[in-house]
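Worked example 2:
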Amino acid sequence: QVQLVESGGGLVQAGGSLRLSCAASGSIFSDNGVGWYRQASGNKRELVAGITSGGKTNYDDSVKGRFTISRDNAKNTVYLQMNDLKPEDTAVYYCNADLLDSGGYRYNDYWGQGTQVTVSS
């Protein structure tokens, strides 16, 4: 079964850190990039950070210098290290990618179930 599984969310005080993981299960990441998005209550889903298959990264201005996206291709996992968290970072965080299953079938624009991050002031 093809899945994107996010983990690592939780409740943390302002200034704290969390590390989110996004693992491709039953599949591998395609040669397209992988993105971390977030959606706060009442807001649109927004791109937080992205990473290409070659490791090139990009970040939303609101998280530059605090968040780091990385990937371990051997583990089919992408990480989001979040430091100096702020209450405005509170949201459900989602992973998005194009996936390939063992038969080479492509699943475009695949989303995980999300993981809740709550930052208290």
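The mean pLDDT is 95. Residues 87 and 119 are 5 Å apart (CA to CA).
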